[in-house]
Amino acid sequence: GIPTLVANYIPKGIDVEFQSENGVLGMGPFPFEGEEDPDMINAGKQTITTLPGAALFDSAISFAMIRGKHVQLTVLGAMEVAENGDIANWKIPGKMVKGMGGAMDLVASADNIIVAMMHTNRIGESKLLKKCTLPITGVNCVKKIVTNLAVLDITEKGFKLLERAPDVSVEEIQNATDGNLIIEGEIPEMRFRSYLSQSGEL
Question: What distance in Å separates the CA atoms of residue 149 and residue 146, rounded to the nearest whole number?
């Protein structure tokens, strides 16, 4: 999903220790074509690289680290986010469930939770709601949301609009948001920069 792309876009000069819940600390960006190691994967079964000093361990140790609150920030995908910070991302009733995954441990343990997702679902329905309709993963835990349309903070009054995507109007974001959207002053466009990845490539 979208959150797995984060490791590819770390600004040069900033050191971040990425943990993959299947047992990797020091995860790097995706490998280039022809450099893949099929034994080196993330929790989503995508091939990855590791940075100097990386450590590999089993998932029991990985989740002990997560539950022990050693993770400062997590980026998750979601099916729904409520205006109070509730998140639903593990189950759609009536559909096959492979398992809960590690999201429940992460939302209960990480200090800062950011959701990276599309603003609407495949049929155009908003994923930013007054209340989640799907089974809840975590309650009142999401701090920030980044979508293809906007960047928003979770506040006591609802979704506060911080930035909008290029060529996307505030009205479009408002129409795509079912929860309470707080708009204060002029909303700037997102600014995109070309960062070097941790591999040193653009």
Answer: 8
Domain positions in the chain are: 1-69, 71-183
Record the tokens describing residue 165, joined without a space: 């995507």
Cβ atoms 115, 76 nearer than 8 A: yes
Strand partners, 182: 160
Band of residue 194 on the pLDDT scale cut at 50, 70, 90? low
| pLDDT value of position 97 | 64
CATH among 3.40.1080.10, 3.40.50.300, 3.50.50.60, 3.10.580.10 for 71-183: 3.40.1080.10
Catalytic residue among 17, 21, 36, 186: 21
Is residue 21 part of the annotated active site? The answer reads: yes
Q: Residue 123 carries which DSSP code? A: T
Question: Which of 82-96, 118-132, 133-147 comes out lowest in average pLDDT?
Answer: 82-96
State which H helix or E strand residue 66 sits in.
Answer: helix 59-67
